[in-house]
Amino acid sequence: MKASSQISFLYFQDFESSCRFFDDFLELETVIEKQWCRVWRVSESSFVGAVDAAQRWQEFAAAQKGHLISFNLPDLDAVEQMRQKALAAGYDAGPLRRQPQGDPQAVEGLCSFFLKGPEGYSFEFECFTDSPLREIFCGR
Q: Given 4, 45, 76, 98, which residue has the most CB atoms within 10 angstroms?
């Protein structure tokens, strides 16, 4: 399989509040806006969507949020700026974590923090420093 793009859909009980997270906090570009669904561009070929669970496919809106949406940012400064923005906005943002060098179980060069977003969904904001993974995920 060689996909040309990717969309991750999340299902929310409070659709409008969740949309404000993507619009106002993350400041993503809206590419589809329907009464029951919105899709935002994360990068050239990556998208995230929110669905109003009360209107469509309620069976996908699980009480246990088994999803993690990771955003790859250009550098460590951008990750820390997003973390500070999250804290200022009152979101539950964890500490900035750097994967240990030389640990075979670690993702080398990964620096990130996790945030609890609308309705308990987890979001990760990350960057890769001095790692071959930087070229794969960031194109440089």
A: 76
Q: 87-92 long-range CB contacts below 8 Å, 24 or more apart?
A: 89/25, 91/25, 91/115, 91/116, 91/117, 92/116
Q: Does residue 115 belong to any structural domain of this protein? A: yes
Q: What is the pTM of this model?
A: 0.75
> Greatest CA span in the chain, whole angstroms?
49
Question: Is residue 59 situated within a structural domain?
Answer: no
**Based on the domain organization, do 74 and 135 belong to the same domain?**
yes
- H-type alpha helices, 24-125: 76-88
pLDDT by residue for the chain (140 residues), tens only, comes to 565 678 898 888 899 999 999 999 999 999 989 888 899 999 988 999 998 888 765 555 555 555 778 888 888 999 999 999 999 999 999 999 988 777 777 777 889 999 999 888 889 998 888 767 777 777 65
- 60 domain-assigned: no
The CATH number covering residue 36 comes to 3.10.180.10
Closest alpha carbon to 21 in 85, 97, 112: 85
Which residue range is the domain that position 25 belongs to?
Answer: 1-54
